[in-house]
Amino acid sequence: MYFWCVVKLSIIGTGNVAFHLAKAFSQAQGVKLQFVAGRDSEKLRTFEGFTTTLDLNKELEETFYSDVILIAVSDASIAAVSQKLIESKALIVHTSGSAAIEILDQNKHCGVFYPLQSFSKEKELVYKEIPFLIEAKLQGDLMILKDLTKSLSASYFTVNSKDRAALHLAAVFSNNFTNHILTEAKQLCNDHKVSFELLKPLMLETVQKAFSIGPENSQTGPAKRKDTPTINKQLSALKSAEQKELYALLTQAIQNHYER
């Protein structure tokens, strides 16, 4: 199942991942974006500028004539959607970081096309900077996924489901949890009427050092040096019980790490 010509592609889903991939593939060389299918007619309208849209419940069979169907829905919905595609001869691919490829076992041709990046509709993406973690059970299907990443000028890494799940978990820590901590930091700045922007150079240096010398080698601060007076002072300054709990938990975790 390998194509030397234009790959006909459809996408099922209307979320951020579906939106960005649909927009990118609509402009990609060697790919013909045929349809985007979804249940929410309001969200489907956002795709009308670059492809034809379908009602997931009524017109899904139209996607059967595609070479590749990307399922970009919540993990809980992947199996149910793939069940509707059993009659299709297309390569059925999901975009989840944590769902195993086996969730698509009912489909003859199946794979995973997971972009390791955070997607927001308001932010444009630079695909050459995004690693795609791909997986397929058949070599021909894997070649198609490699070609899809190349059409986006992105890089690909062949990663099995177990390792992809581990990377997804690491991404939750590095992106989602960090983002929440930054949200709390911004709230503290707002509460005291100081500029959140002043933290930007510090954050950029933090990330740069984490990937140059390793995060474990670049840790500083009162927790690392066991500066109890400063820790207690800062705990007292926090008004929110959740912030106090988060501060205490992370402080203890840092100290535990450097006592190993």
Automatic annotation (TrEMBL):
Q: Give every Putative oxidoreductase/dehydrogenase Rossmann-like domain span.
A: 8-106
Q: Which Gene3D superfamilies match?
A: NAD(P)-binding Rossmann-like Domain (3.40.50.720), ProC-like, C-terminal domain (1.10.1040.20)
Name of protein: Putative short-subunit dehydrogenase-like oxidoreductase (DUF2520 family)
Q: Where is the DUF2520 domain?
A: 130-253
